Amino acid sequence: MTATLESTGPLAPPPAGSRYLDPGLGDWQASGTEGFWLKPLLHDAEGGLQTALMRIDPGAFSDLHAHEELEQVLVLEGAFYDQDRRIEAGGFVVRAPGALHTAGSDEGALVLLIFSRKE
Q: All domains of the chain, ordered by start, with CATH?
């Protein structure tokens, strides 16, 4: 078995075997929206796949927006909401490319984000 240990992200898909990322290493990056922070985990430009942890500060809110890719959100801690409902820890939402939505958290949240091109 081949394994590569990486200290900072995002990782590229391995050509064979496995790659590992210690999420405790590396800094949270500003997302461009106040109160939303990203820690990139995987980026595959050729395959159109991105995976990241997103930390949302308590009270943070993002206005109506859309993404070009299919978006998957798994709430790991806290709670997250959009214009339709509140998603608690363990909750999951998937959005079609171009789906308009808001995003926010009253108490703060940690979510896993996966963006992928729909082929």
A: 23-116 (2.60.120.10)
